[in-house]
From TrEMBL:
Catalyzes the decarboxylation of four acetate groups of uroporphyrinogen-III to yield coproporphyrinogen-III. Pathway: Porphyrin-containing compound metabolism; protoporphyrin-IX biosynthesis; coproporphyrinogen-III from 5-aminolevulinate: step 4/4. One of its GO terms (biological process) is protoporphyrinogen IX biosynthetic process. InterPro entries: UROD/MetE-like_sf, Uroporphyrinogen_deCO2ase_HemE, Uroporphyrinogen_deCOase. Belongs to the uroporphyrinogen decarboxylase family. Substrate binds at residues 35-39, 84, 159, 214, 336. This is Uroporphyrinogen decarboxylase. Keywords: Cytoplasm, Decarboxylase, Lyase, Porphyrin biosynthesis. It is found in: Cytoplasm. It comes from the Bacteria.
Length: 358
């Protein structure tokens, strides 16, 4: 792909992750883990004492240090910006907070046209974000990539409509079908905010970005295509050609082709679908893409031999996908985020095995 450099962006000539996405042969198999920065690390728990999640995400010193902690410890090939899906909503002025043990919660759920029209749109900068990214870049080697972060429009919409996390997304689905125009307005406002949030990160120098659609797997194929795909596509279209892009969702095996069609360069695959089978679904719908994934996070707790065997299986599936013409490359990752109880040494060992044998 052709990218347009930002004045703040570093020149990375031998970064394994970027080389893999570009179809080159990387110096070593690229690996990074979702939620690699966070509760699995004792240094993270120590530095976060007394500081709320959203405050930590917007404090430039904490943002930089937390993002860099797993890179230093595990020698991964990319840092993922320490953030939360709802940070852009908070930055836009929405009354939202993260309640321990529950997750993001809004003061008033957004369920009618009046409330939708009042959802603020992020228009300016995000205090602390640009400075924090600058600190991260200073701490990375020139072969390590910084991946930006944003939640996808549907996942943000679900939090707003449900009022918090949901196991059914019943109010969200009801709004989609009873008032499609209002739904599209809400998604349009969120899309504008997400694009602006990523533009701030791009201007600060991120090397790639990932759009997380955490709740998309709760949708049918029909509903995803009608109510979600057009808006996610607008995010990728708005940022096309700037830096490589990644699209990821959980339990989205039946949606992989449609998610690929949204326009990202890389499609993340959770552990429920073998990589070669996922690649065929993606290629059929949108042509071959670079794959990312898909080690089961729970298996990091199972011991070295189990992890080694799973890495070998993933390597073989990725090779079959490339040989069949269904994939352009592969980035090792988990099928979702690092679990809080994961021993840090298990993560370090998995990265070492991937680099040596992957």
């Amino acid at each position: 792909m052709t990218t347009t450099p930002s004045p703040a962006r570093r020149e990375l000539r031998r970064a394994p992750l970027l080389d893999a996405i570009a179809g080159k042969t990387p110096a070593r198999p690229p690996v990074w883990f979702m939620r690699q920065a966070g509760r699995s690390l004792p240094e993270y728990r120590e530095i976060r004492k007394g500081t709320g999640m959203l405050d930590a995400c917007l404090n430039p010193e904490l943002l930089a240090e937390i993002t860099l902690q797993p890179v230093r410890r595990h020698d991964v090939d990319a840092a993922i910006l320490f953030s939360d899906i709802v940070v852009p909503l908070k930055a836009a002025g929405l009354a939202i907070d993260i309640v321990p043990g529950r997750g993001p919660v809004v003061d008033e759920p957004v369920r009618d046209r009046s409330a939708i029209g009042a959802v603020p749109i992020l228009e300016g900068d995000v205090p602390g974000l640009e400075e924090g990214i600058g600190g991260i870049l200073e701490g990375l080697r020139d072969d390590q990539t910084l991946i930006g972060f944003a939640g996808a429009p549907f996942t943000l919409a679900s939090y707003l409509v449900e009022g918090g996390p949901s196991k059914t997304h019943e109010h969200t689905k009801a709004l989609m079908h009873t008032d499609p125009e209002a739904w599209d307005e809400l998604m349009g406002r969120l899309t504008t905010t997400i694009v602006r949030f990523l533009e701030v990160q791009l201007a600060a120098g991120i090397d790639a970005f990932q759009l997380f659609d955490s709740w998309a797997g709760f949708l049918s194929e029909h509903d995803y295509r009608r109510f979600v795909l057009p808006h996610s596509t607008k995010v990728f279209e708005a940022l096309a050609g700037r830096v490589p892009s990644i699209h990821f969702g959980v339990t989205t095996g039946e949606l992989l082709g449609d998610m690929a069609a949204a326009g990202a360069d890389v499609v993340g695959v959770d552990w429920r679908v073998p990589l070669d089978r996922a690649a065929e679904r993606i290629a059929t719908a949108a042509g071959p893409k670079v794959l990312q994934g898909n080690l089961d996070p729970a298996l990091l707790l199972a011991g070295g031999e189990v992890v080694r065997g799973e890495i070998a299986r993933i390597k073989a599936e990725a090779a079959r996908a490339r040989a069949a013409g269904h994939a352009l490359g592969h980035v090792y990752n988990l099928g979702h985020g690092v679990l809080p109880a994961t021993p840090p040494d298990a993560i370090t060992e998995a990265v070492r095995v991937i680099h040596e044998e992957g």
